[in-house]
Amino acid sequence: MAKTDFFKPNKIYISHALREQLCDLATQDKTHFGLVTVNIGESSFELNEYFDVGCRSGPVLHLYPDFSKLHRTKRYLEMIGKAPMVEFHTHIKSDTELHIKDIEKMKMLRRGYWIIGGNNGLAFYFFYHKPKQNTKNMMTLVTEKIEL
Could you tell me the domains of the chain? Predict the structure, then answer.
């Protein structure tokens, strides 16, 4: 999928094994960050495999990925023909709702797909910017959540 192609999937399919793996990571007392490979259909996503990237986190720092490992993992997945479309991270002892730090990162990234794991399961988010009405050069962040 090219960088300019961005759409809202109507359906998201996830295997039982991948759901169990991500839910297990979400119940641990450690923040996890990684990539989930995706097969893209007409209007659907099929989530396939999880690749752990690693990150730092703490009371002040919500999530700080290991960027060198993130870039190496993305290059590796592209080299073997897999599309690293969805970023995954966990919220320790919290639900899947967006935190302030999540929204700040979404504003910086401008658009993308995330899966957040929390103590209430998994949620799929997609986000993008759209122009504000009656303003020039002003954008607003739009997020939509799909329970998995």
Answer: 11-147 (3.40.140.10)
